[in-house]
Amino acid sequence: MILTPIEYDLPNLLDSDDALALCEIEDEGLKHLVFLVCEAGWGVIVVETASGDHFVIARADGKQESNLIGDTRRWMHEHGFQFVLKRSDRRISTPRENLFVFPDGREVEIATAYTAYTGFRHY
Question: Which residues pair with 58 in a beta bridge?
């Protein structure tokens, strides 16, 4: 798996009708969680903060929200990951383009966004 930097409109995603599962993750668990999200078929974005922390964001359209919630519950139970869920009818505040605010008031300053490239072709 390779994380590739991307240009992504995160404020638009956080203010969309998509369901999101956000997990703050330490470096040692990052690869494992990204693999689980990709293996389950969800869109994945990794956010690196200005302070060097990482968040994994799993994305599903509103129709698949209950499936994403089920997967996050399983990952919490089996692997101990802790998620903040954004339901499709909710929004996460983005006061600035590179800043979002969790419902508990915690602010996250975005430095870089990545996506996972997990497939390789053999020629």
Answer: 21, 44
Asked whether residue 122 is assigned to any structural domain, the reply reads no
**pLDDT higher than threshold 70 for residue 39:** yes
Q: What is the pLDDT of residues 59-108, one digit of tens each?
A: 998 899 999 999 999 999 999 999 999 999 999 999 988 899 987 888 99
Nearest Cα to Cα of residue 42 among 17, 25, 11, 67: 67
How far is Cα 73 from Cα 21, in angstroms, rounded to an integer? 10
Q: Is 45 helix (H, G, I), strand (E, B) or coil?
A: strand
Residue 4 above 70 pLDDT?
yes
> Side chain identity at 57, as an amino acid letter?
I
**Which of helix, strand or coil describes residue 19?**
strand
Range of the domain at 46: 6-117
Give the pair of three-digit tokens for residue 100.
């979002």
CATH, residue 79? 3.30.70.260
